[in-house]
Amino acid sequence: MKKLVAMLLALAMAFALVSCGGGNASTPGSGSNPGSVSTDEKEPTSDVKSPVEGKKVAYIMLMTPATIFQMWSESFEATAKKLGMEAKTFFCNDNADTWKETVSQCAAAGYDGLMVSHGGQEYAWDYLNGILAQYPDLKIATFDTPFKDANGETAKIEGVTQFFQQDAGFAASLVDELLKLNQDKVDAGEAVRILQVQQGAGFNSPFDRRQVGYQPYLDNGKIVNVERIAPIDNSNPTSSMRDVTAATLQKYHDTEDIDGIWCCYDAYAQGVYQALVEANSQIPMVSVDICNEDIQFMQEGKNWKACATTNWTSNGEFACRVLALEMADEYDAIAAASCYYADIGAWMEIPSTIVTQEQVMSEEGINIENLDKVADASYTDVSWMPTCDWMAELLGH
Q: What does the alpha-carbon distance between residue 128 and residue 106 come to, in Å, rounded to a whole number?
């Protein structure tokens, strides 16, 4: 009798494990088979039923798996698991054809939702429209993927939520940092002289949006551009900016002529910083985005004073939330988020925060993975994310 009871208990436990099994995220990497999704067991976290349980989703990134994008993908996959979904990541190594092919393969392989990132504005709208025409039940959300129609006009795709970083906010907060570094001039009513590192209009959508945040300071006379510079060789932006900055500095008398340098992108900023150090310059600089190399340069205690960034772990969770709400047909929950822009429609922006040199030097061993230890509370704030009752129960907020 005891043996029979034991056998029945074992069978019951095995059945429970099978019933609760879900898809765990696979290791990100290019060249993966879109038709293959991992099926490791997932522990249930709540009695609440997830409307997206059992769905398959993918994160498809145009670019290479840099640290910040790995943080994004790991968070995306972890969030998907908590919601009962199976998730996989694909990096396309800056190849637009690979990006398109991966989107097509995932759609054909039966994925229910695709989070696609950094698609080019010259092809994304047309290509994704074609994919959705072929697979009308598929849900797509996009990051840093502007939509332009055949006439170059801003366009929309029904049911597709677009989101971006708060690029104009990046720009404005960094100008404010330079103004604080030159408070005496501000108090005296003098314009702060800035060497602007920024591509011209139309180079890409994020840079254009950053100019939107920068321009009002020029218009109201708080700052004046000494000069605007950019890489000559876009295929080697860091080394090119090192050369361009070195040549530019020879035309000026350091802080006598330039009060600060504003960089629209950290790959450019790394070259700027190297040129400043080599020239023994005292000009302070600030930049958009952050990575471990940026933090290491800031920790040298020299010119690099601040970065404007988002939290890439939070970004991955946010992306998964948006896609899951689309798949659950709960677009009202997306629109209710504080980061949603109703006047644009189906457009969201991830709030930005400033990380200062003082913060990353305040403790030993600070890097991109543990930046939350020293960053402002805004860096880990998630109150802006879309949610609903079942999602809050399963994810904890």
A: 13
Please give the Cα distance from 183 to 304 (Å, whole number): 18
Task: Find, among 326, 333, 316, the residue nearest to 382 by Cα.
Answer: 316
Q: What is the pLDDT of residue 374?
A: 98
Burial environment of residue 373 by CB neighbours within 10 A (0 to 12, 13 to 18, 19 or more): middle
**What is the three-class DSSP state of 125?**
helix
At residue 297's C-alpha, the angle toward residues 296 and 301, to 5°, is 105
Nearest-angstrom CA–CA distance, 80 and 202: 35
CB 322 within 8 A of CB 62: no
SS3 222: coil
Write the CB contacts of 114 (distance below 8 Å, at least 6 apart in sequence): 57, 58, 60, 103, 106, 107, 138, 139, 140, 141, 323
Mean pLDDT of 155-160: 96
Beta bridge partners of 347: 162
